[in-house]
Amino acid sequence: MHTILILNPKGGCGKSTIATNLAGYFAMRGKNVSLADCDPQCSSSDWLKVRPDHLATINHVPVKKGKLLVPGDTEILIFDTPASIHDQKMARIVSAAQTMIIPVLPSPIDMRAAERFLKHLIKIRKKTVNKKIKIATVANRVRERTLAAAKLEGYLEKLELPNGKKIPFMTLLRASQNYVYAAERGTTIFEMAPSKTFPDREQWQPLLKWLNSKRSLP
Ligand SMILES: Nc1ncnc2c1ncn2[C@@H]1O[C@H](COP(=O)(O)OP(=O)(O)OP(=O)(O)O)[C@@H](O)[C@H]1O
Ligand SMILES: [Mg+2]
């Protein structure tokens, strides 16, 4: 089972968007996918509730008092996580994951918050959690060809853990109403008309290639 965690304690950076789109992508490819929603806001669970029956099935994994009931035949387990997650919970979730995706928005506040989060993550990791977890970043909700986009890309390309290890920057996802539409309807950009979502699908390719390769596994 491949366990993928979407984590960044900064609110609204795109965790649920990436978690749900990834779940839909793998389910559509015939994988047995489970989605664990660790956020009391329940964005991913709500998305699953409105997911149309004719689309590929995704198992809903309820998280109650830190316990998960993951179906035994799950091939891909995706964790959506809350903003402002406290240390103990973060350590518990990170220790369960093989791969971590950190979405970051193009704003100075979000970039500074990401920096602080990585420092903190290293502290927690040293003490308690899976040290071999593979981490990558994604720039999200970016208006292409803007100064903010260029700054975020430059920042993520150079990003490293406080121990000097480079964090691969996977891709840039544009700001697109397609994500808002998909979120409302329990679908994904991969399940919408290709003519509408082609630029979005293209932007996901580096991330999907990484996730489909051994490079994203410990
Ligand atoms: N690339 C994008 N283009 C346009 N809208 C986006 C994009 N990514 C996310 N959004 C929208 O931004 C809002 C926040 O995204 P999302 O809920 O995925 O963030 P989050 O990190 O899960 O938030 P929280 O920390 O509250 O759980 C949502 O309304 C979502 O539809
Ligand atoms: Mg969320």
Any overview of this molecule?
The structure is a single chain. By secondary structure, the chain is of the alpha/beta class. The protein has a single domain, classed as Rossmann fold. It has seven helices and nine strands; from the N terminus they run E-H-E-H-E-E-E-E-H-E-H-E-H-E-H-H. The strands form two sheets. A seven-stranded parallel β-sheet has the order 3-2-6-1-7-8-9, with helices on both faces. Strands 4-5 form a two-stranded antiparallel ribbon. Helix 1 (15-28) runs parallel beside helix 2. The radius of gyration is 16 Å and the shape is globular. Magnesium ion (MG) binds at residues 15-16, 39, 43, 80. Magnesium ion binds at residues 15-16, 39, 43, 80.
CATH class wording:
Alpha Beta
* CATH homologous superfamily annotation: P-loop containing nucleotide triphosphate hydrolases
Q: What's the total helix number? A: 7
Based on CA atoms alone, the radius of gyration comes out at: 16 Å
What is the residue-averaged pLDDT? 93
Outline type? globular
Largest sheet: 7 strands, parallel
- The name of the CATH architecture is 3-Layer(aba) Sandwich
Order of helices and strands: EHEHEEEEHEHEHEHH
Number of domains: 1
Numbering strands along the chain, what is their spatial order in the largest sheet? 3-2-6-1-7-8-9
The total strand number stands at 9
Portion of residues within helices:
40-55%
Give a list of the ligands: adenosine-5'-triphosphate, magnesium ion
Uncertain runs with pLDDT below 50, 5 residues or more? none
Structural class: alpha/beta
CATH names the topology as Rossmann fold
Strand composition percent: 15-25%
Task: Give the termini distance in whole angstroms.
Answer: 12 Å
